[in-house]
């Protein structure tokens, strides 16, 4: 603009910012009032000089002492409010980000981990059943003489194999007696210098020597439990004496009930009257340690108390009063991450959170506690150890291996754990292998279906299995997990519903056929067996 409205050109205003080049250009021919206009359009021939704009002091000197530019207007109240609001939000976001990072680091630094090599899973979660070994060690390291046997590296004093079903509808907590005579396999253990040392296995020794003795780590206990039960262990969680005290205190105490007065003067020091109690801290620890004043005074009776305590602790931890109270939740998270030692597969806050979220859908009422069936060791005159009680133990292990619940539960309908078997890729007809059985009661149904499959649908790798052992109301297709694409193709041809498909648990051999059993709903080959969809209202 002109200087003070006198028609004089302000030399500073002859410098114009060109957005095309990012520089200031001197325009000597710009008329007054247009010197601060936008830069010349591309191609415009205007004399330019690439140089920085003159300083304000130089401009004022050129204009003279009486020449003054109008002061920059102050931002309006609305503008100031917007600036303060934006700044406040930005500060809050930075503060939250820093706070969240510090919280994450705080809990992450609490966690102790052990690298168990190939004994566990590297993934925190799985789509199938999950097995977690919960170990309570009686290590006295760092605890002084308060609990006796000062400095002991400890044993696998309490071991519970926590099996969670594939559909997350139920879980089985299987206690393994510490005095069970079993075999401990060779155990590769990671040393402090990063090397691996294989600790030789032992035959006919107590289960609890699988941890701590001869330098064995929790990975050795995992391998021992796998060899004993036939179940693949995914992860372990190990807790010491302090974990019981601190966790029980963090949730505000754990409800327990005893059938008679307990006065354990020779062991844990627990003293409780008959009936209901809320225990925490040292009293909670004494409760899970006591055995001399319950039952026959042995470890099997103590296991019952431990199962009661753990069941109650789980219910308390999942209660709304704990999970909705920020102070309790912080304390619980802080105590849990400090108290637990876990494998590297779940050795971070993120992985533990993923695992907790995956298992959180299991209702506490559907968690069944059981103990591995055992009998007194017949090789001992004075019984101090136990051995497996077969065939009861074998049957129990097979039930858990088959992912069968020990209590009657209704499977959960979950999109993540129970997808529609009809959804997914379909095999080519030539790759479908199926054996057709006739359970419909109609003579020749299997052969008629076989002819239709081979001659019309191109399923040449099909066979006639004859009559089924009995008649069925509904047609079924039994297949292995690695035959799912074949099952979907056959279901599409036959018009089978999802309920007609029965998937097994074990993969089939490469050339093994599926089994199609025709039921009373079968009428004619090629006619859909599932009802047509209901008509949609216009």
UniProtKB/TrEMBL annotation:
The keyword Acyltransferase does not apply. Residues 431-522 form the LytR/CpsA/Psr regulator C-terminal domain. It holds the Pfam family LytR_cpsA_psr. InterPro entries: LytR/CpsA/Psr_C, LytR/CpsA/Psr_CW_biosynth, LytR_CpsA_psr. Residues 528-538 have a biased composition (Pro residues). The keyword Coiled coil does not apply. Residues 1-81, 405-427, 516-538 are annotated as: Disordered. The chain crosses the membrane at residues 81-104. Keywords: Membrane, Transmembrane, Transmembrane helix. Residues 66-81 have a biased composition (Basic residues). It comes from the Bacteria. Residues 56-65 have a biased composition (Low complexity). Residues 155-319 form the Cell envelope-related transcriptional attenuator domain. Belongs to the LytR/CpsA/Psr (LCP) family. This is LCP family protein. It comes from Streptantibioticus rubrisoli. The lineage of its organism: Bacteria, Bacillati, Actinomycetota, Actinomycetes, Kitasatosporales.
């Amino acid at each position: 603009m002109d200087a003070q409205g006198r028609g004089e050109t302000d030399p500073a205003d002859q410098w114009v910012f060109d957005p095309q080049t990012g520089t200031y250009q001197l325009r000597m021919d710009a008329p007054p009032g247009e010197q601060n206009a936008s830069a010349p359009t591309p191609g415009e021939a205007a004399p330019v000089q690439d140089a920085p704009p003159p300083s304000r002091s130089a401009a004022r000197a050129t204009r003279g002492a009486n020449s003054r530019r109008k002061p920059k207007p102050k931002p309006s109240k609305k503008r100031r409010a917007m600036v303060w609001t934006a700044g406040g939000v930005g500060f809050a976001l930075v503060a939250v980000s820093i706070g969240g990072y510090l919280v994450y680091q705080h809990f992450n630094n609490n966690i102790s981990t052990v690298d168990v090599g190939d004994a566990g899973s590297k993934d925190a979660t799985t789509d199938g059943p999950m097995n977690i070994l919960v170990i309570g060690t009686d290590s006295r390291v760092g605890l002084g003489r308060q609990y006796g046997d000062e400095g002991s590296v400890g044993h696998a004093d309490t071991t519970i194999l926590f099996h969670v079903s594939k559909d997350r509808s139920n879980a089985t907590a299987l206690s393994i007696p510490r005095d069970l005579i079993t075999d401990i396999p060779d155990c590769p253990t990671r040393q402090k210098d990063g090397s691996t040392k294989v600790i030789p296995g032992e035959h006919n020794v107590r289960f609890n020597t699988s941890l701590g003795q001869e330098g064995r780590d929790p990975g050795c206990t995992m391998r021992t439990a796998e060899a004993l039960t036939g179940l693949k262990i995914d992860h372990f969680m190990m807790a010491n004496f302090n974990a019981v005290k601190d966790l029980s205190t963090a949730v505000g105490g754990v409800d327990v009930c005893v059938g008679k007065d307990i006065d354990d003067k020779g062991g844990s020091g627990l003293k409780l009257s008959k009936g209901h109690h809320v225990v925490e801290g040292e009293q909670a620890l004494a409760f899970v340690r006591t055995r001399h004043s319950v039952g026959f005074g042995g470890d099997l009776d103590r296991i019952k108390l431990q199962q009661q305590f753990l069941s109650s602790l789980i219910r308390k931890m999942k209660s709304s009063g704990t999970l909705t109270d920020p102070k309790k939740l912080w304390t619980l998270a802080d105590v849990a991450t400090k108290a637990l030692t876990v494998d590297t597969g779940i050795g971070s806050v993120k992985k533990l959170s993923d695992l907790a979220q995956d298992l959180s859908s299991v209702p506490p009422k559907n968690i069944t506690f059981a103990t591995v069936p055992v009998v007194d060791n017949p090789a001992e005159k004075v019984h101090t150890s136990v051995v497996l009680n077969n065939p009861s133990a074998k049957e129990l292990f097979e039930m858990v291996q088959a992912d069968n619940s020990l209590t009657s539960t209704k499977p959960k309908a979950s999109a993540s754990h129970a997808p529609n078997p009809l959804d997914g890729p379909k095999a080519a007809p030539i790759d479908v292998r199926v054996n057709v059985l006739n359970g419909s009661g109609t003579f020749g149904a299997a052969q008629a279906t076989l002819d239709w499959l081979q001659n019309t649908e191109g399923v040449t790798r099909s066979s006639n299995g004859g009559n089924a052992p009995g008649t069925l109301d509904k047609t079924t297709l039994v297949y292995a997990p690695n035959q799912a694409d074949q099952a979907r193709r056959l279901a599409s041809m036959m018009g089978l519903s999802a309920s007609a498909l029965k998937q097994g648990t074990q993969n089939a051999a490469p050339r093994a056929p599926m089994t199609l059993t025709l039921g009373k709903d079968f009428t004619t080959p090629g006619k859909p067996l599932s009802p047509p969809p209901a008509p949609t209202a216009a």
